[in-house]
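Q: Structure tokens for this one, please.
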Amino acid sequence: MSAPEAESLRARSQAPRPSVWRGQGPVVAVVALGGAIGAVARYAASLRWPAQGGGFPWTTFGINVVGCAVIGVFMVVVTDVWAAHRLVRPFFGTGVLGGFTTFSTYAVDIQKLVDAGRPRTALAYLAATLIAALAAVWLGATTARRVLKRRQR
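A: Here is the predicted structure, written as tokens:
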């Protein structure tokens, strides 16, 4: 006869595991797909509007600000207006917009500016991106709420 604890552990280890596709698998898949789409869009923008060496990185700045504004609008729409499918927020918010906006390129741009002897431009870029991104989220959300209120009248 074995100890009750050992029997309990054996029973638990033999229980079937739930399928990954019933849990977080679909979320991970849509985030990955959305991230690929967003990253390709960001890359296309960087090809269309390449950054000038040692100058203010306008393309990355614009991408981050536009992405933040869209996040503000999107979050109002999916929380206040539209009962979206459970995978819409991870796909578009985390995936597409997370892949489109870029903290890593922002950090690399700052380092490149410092290395090129442009610390003032780097500091201006650092501060301007932070302020503009936060303002863009707020402005996007506020504008979306106002537009929705007007449409309800």
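A few notes: The chain is about 80% helix and 0% strand. The two ends are 75 Å apart (CA to CA).
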